[in-house]
Amino acid sequence: MTNLALKLAENARSIGVSSAYGDPVQIEGVTVVPVALVQYGFGAGGQDADSGADGFGGGGGGGVSIPIGAYVKHGTSVRFDPNIIALLTVGIPFVWVAGRVLIRLIRVIKR
Questions:
Q1: Residue 5 burial (10 A CB sphere; 0-12, 13-18, 19+)
Q2: pLDDT digits (tens, 9 = 90+) for 13-69
C-alpha cells in the first residue's frame, strides 16, 4: 500500500497547469504553446482472498488528454488556434446532454 501512495504522490506533482499547457516551441520566429483538456481517473486492483498467493490479481488506471488547440505568438500578437476536430468531439456530446436536460426541465415546468 505504501508503494501505491508514493506513486500517487509522484503523479500528483504533474497535475495542473503543466499538464494542460505544453512547452513552448519556436518555429521560424513563431512561438507555439499547445493546449489540452486533461482529465484524470484513478483505478485500483486486488487479489481474491480465497486463492492465496498464487491466485489471480489485477488492476489498472489511466487518464485522458484531448488536444484542443494552441496559442500562437507572432511578433507582439497572440492568438488561439483551435483544433476544430477535438473541439467538436468534446462539444457535440456536451450540447446533446444540455439539450436533453433542457427538454426535461421544460416538461417539468409545464406540469
A1: exposed
A2: 666 667 788 889 999 989 999 998 777 666 666 666 665 555 556 666 667 777 889
Round to whole Å and give the CA distance between 28 and 25: 10
Q: With contact defined as beta carbons under 8 Å apart, do 25 and 42 qualify? A: no
Q: Which three cell numbers stand for residue 78?
A: 497572440
Query: 31 in helix, strand or coil?
Result: strand
Answer yes or no: pTM beyond 0.70. Answer: no
CA distance 30 to 61: 37
Region of 19 (left: φ > 0; alpha: ψ -120 to 50; beta: rest) is alpha
